[in-house]
Amino acid sequence: MLNMDGVSVGYGDAPAVLTDISVTVRPGRVLALTGSSGAGKTTLLNAMAGLLRPRDGSVTVDGRPLRDRDHAVEHRIVLIPQDNGLAPILTAAENLQVALVAGGVTPPEALRQTAAMLDLLGLAGQADQLVEELSGGQQQRTAVARGLALRGGVLLADEVTS
Ligand SMILES: Nc1ncnc2c1ncn2[C@@H]1O[C@H](COP(=O)(O)OP(=O)(O)OP(=O)(O)O)[C@@H](O)[C@H]1O
Ligand SMILES: [Mg+2]
């Protein structure tokens, strides 16, 4: 369970983007966050993902304070970033395989899971294509495939419907 309590976040010396935010992400539940452009959705997700340290308040995962992104990864908090975060010079399949192997999956199992997930997202035909040669929507589906393949305890999906 991911919990935010009285969180304020911002950048540099600028005024806080968000103040006094409290939210609980519970297992098995889907939580939607909406807001106008610039409202702070990405900022909030980055704080939940351990990428941005709050100025005030606490972010805890299973009751323990979230230290940084590495700590969040240890607790299987997966982020699908707004800009997809894929390595453009790797193929679609390699982007999934690298992430899976880095997470401790054996290479043969990573190959198997990658093929299954790309198939599920309708990308079987694009597996060996470089990301920079995929269409925008295919790139986003590759990012979704990678996020799902990592089987996070928490999956943070920024602009997932775009
Ligand atoms: N790295 C940064 N440095 C300084 N200010 C930033 C940075 N990232 C975002 N901001 C500012 O924080 C505010 C919230 O931005 P954020 O990206 O969280 O909005 P958003 O709700 O995700 O918007 P969108 O729907 O356009 O993606 C904006 O005013 C933006 O200019
Ligand atoms: Mg955003």
Q: What's a concise summary of this model?
A:
The chain has 162 residues and is of the alpha+beta class.
Your description of this structure?
The protein is α+β, with helices and mostly antiparallel strands and 162 residues long. It has two domains: 2-75, P-loop containing nucleotide triphosphate hydrolases (Rossmann fold, 3-Layer(aba) Sandwich), CATH 3.40.50; 92-152. Helix content is 33%, strand content 20%. It contains five helices and six strands, in the order ββαββαβαααβ. The chain has helices spanning 41-48, 69-74, 92-102, 107-120, 136-149, and strands spanning 2-9, 18-25, 56-61, 64-65, 77-80, 154-157. The protein has a four-stranded antiparallel β-sheet with strand order 2-1-3-4. It has a two-stranded parallel sheet with strand order 5-6. A hairpin with a 2-residue loop joins strand 3 and strand 4 (64-65). Helix 3 packs across helix 4 (107-120) and helix 3 packs parallel to helix 5. It is globular. The model has no long low-confidence stretch (mean pLDDT 95). It binds adenosine-5'-triphosphate and magnesium ion (MG). Magnesium ion (MG) binds at residues 41-42, 82, 158.
